[in-house]
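Here is a tokenized protein:
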Amino acid sequence: MKKQKNLFSHLTAIERIHLSVPAQFLLDKNLLQDKVKILDFGCGLGNDVKLLRKKGFDVTGYDPYYFPEYPHEKFDTIICFYVLNVLFPEEQADVLMRISNLLKPGGKAYYAVRRDLRREGFREHYIHKKPTYQCIVKLPFKSIYLDESCEIYEYMHYNLQANTSNNCNCIFCNPYKNLTILTESATAYAMFDGYPVSKGHVLVVPKRHVSNYFELPFKEQSACWFMVNRVQEILGKEFEPDGFNVGMNINRDAGQNMMHASIHIIPRYKGDTVGVKGGIRYVIPKRK
């Protein structure tokens, strides 16, 4: 059966004259500061952006349909209201990764999702008569507000979250607070390697504590490789490498030192290998 395309998610944006409920809640709780840079990711028609600017806030709006100029700076606070409910799971994961990458170290993002949905799937928009998609969303972040219509989550980078469920001493389960998290999704995160082989060497790390990548559930394996694609895009723009090596070490005989699964993304540059080829087939020196 052919999967229906999600072409009209932008039609769910509505015109308002007052702040949205999530924006008003954050404002009332002093979670929006007037001296920091704020991004409204998926701002729709930009109502919250306009109203917050009138109150003196430094707010930038981004929406792939209505305000398509993608931001190129980092932000102290990012808000994302009712966006994830109208996206497919792959699109949701992409939004999470993009927001994580745009967030300054120590910054916070706030996601608002609908809690008044009675069914998931496509339905005809009552005005535009086009098929629009709606789904229920649960996030593994701290919930700071919940009523019958809305839930608000607070997000910080993985190494700054209170990971009270991680009782082990694994450094990948409890990464140092001074590490730079490049991007993050619900089940994985990417950080710059502490002992880089080349400039821009990044590790994609599943949050589940598993030493053997092949023991991860398939959905989490897929999420890791989806993140590899996103990381490659980020590194390509920032470092402009001439190539990449991408791979993993599984078990000690294959060179695994940290017994927590990870995927290496190693940018390669012309001239970084002298005298011999440097590809995957040459990982065993005697067989090169």
About this structure: The longest helix spans residues 218-239.
